[in-house]
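WARN no homologs supplied; continuing
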Amino acid sequence: MASRIAVRFQRLAAEGRQALIPFFTAGHPSRDSTVQVMHALARAGADVIELGVPFSDPMADGPAIQRSSEKALALGVGLSDVLQWVSEFRTTDSETPVVLMGYANPIERMGGEQFLDRAAQSGVDGVIVVDYPPEEAADFARMARERGIDPIFLLAPTTGSARIDQILSAASGYVYYVSLRGITGGTIDIDDVVKRVSLIKSRTALPVGVGFGIRDAATAAAVARVADAVIIGTRMIQLLEEGPAEGAASRVEAFIAEVRAAIDARPGR
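OK structure emitted
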């Protein structure tokens, strides 16, 4: 049976459209807002939701996402809370894929197999563990796939040719291309993204998503000309912080609807 992620990308491909994948940290700006924000993103046209698992040392993340993690941890948010919120989301949304993105430590504390069992029961569709290199995550990736969860891996601008093939051989769901040489929140080089994504797509049938550095609708539309998916994180976090927690869902819903429209209206579609 095809995963929710595969089904969504197949539908988009048939429609000639690109996926829009927003990211935000679970429990930020408040514990009560998480499920509301997830539903708002789905209403606005998000194809996959990446839900960050708060962690005290998020090495790949810039100041905004680090800050969101710290605030969620201060509210006592842990991995069990994140899984519970996915379960709550699933009670009324059985179609939108949900991917958990985070670091190895919370998973190791819970136990890899127990985490994957609970993730599958909660309705998680994919996992991105930033500090799990594929050569050390073979068993984890296998166990994830056995439970219908896609192990999703990152490719960087500095990833060499042989390593690209190694990572692609372990991946499923989609491939996450990190467009920056550094942490989240920087400025994207569209020409470089075009070259690198074209290279990756020549080596895999998996959809290729691009994240890090996509701040607005215009940049998202430019990336969508070459990528299968556009991933937006830092700007999401900033919007969630730009007003009271009670209005967080409506702020990101308006933003994602704008980005969705720009991607769908891009020239050449």
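The beta strands are 19-25, 49-52, 98-102, 126-129, 150-151, 154-155, 175-178, 208-211, 229-232.
OK
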